Amino acid sequence: MKIINYKKVKAEKVDDPQSKGVKIRWAIKKDDGAPNFALRVFELKAGGYTPYHSHKWEHEVFIKKGKGTLLWEDKKIPFREGDVIFIPGGEKHQFRNSSRGVLEFLCMIPV
Amino acid sequence: MKIINYKKVKAEKVDDPQSKGVKIRWAIKKDDGAPNFALRVFELKAGGYTPYHSHKWEHEVFIKKGKGTLLWEDKKIPFREGDVIFIPGGEKHQFRNSSRGVLEFLCMIPV
What is the reported pTM? Predict the structure, then answer.
């Protein structure tokens, strides 16, 4: 068993040049013994964004705080606190913080 | 892609006689096309609890709101908003709402 407050997990800067103002906390990962999926918490500054890309694995997302826009297959879809988003593998997506505050969301992926 | 506010997902009463005051929302599940894991949101009334049990699959939990106590292998461990909990398969656990308010947490499991 592992218990930790997510704020105690190191926030690592995402260095991808196609992203901006993004930090990631790997709260539960393979090294913890997680056999199937990892739990990460993202933090995006105002105006920040993740890369617009696709990959073969899925995302399961929970918007913890703030609001933003999902660019999905060239469509803009607003989201806000409490929204749950499932992005199957192979679909293009980008998370944008379109607000003036911080955006935080959980994003789970297979290990 | 699926997007839905978790409050729009039907809160189903958990009928297990070893639990009390528990509702579950299946926000992302196998029927949505999730290939690896499901995202559920639990709601426990003040004084509510989940069964004290173990099973072969793991839990990955994020405490969304409120506070409570984890009974884990006969030890009592307090938790609060923002805590992340990983319970590997085979370990006995129970989530208790030891507060006067509502407790909400996300709990992901393999499908």
Answer: 0.97
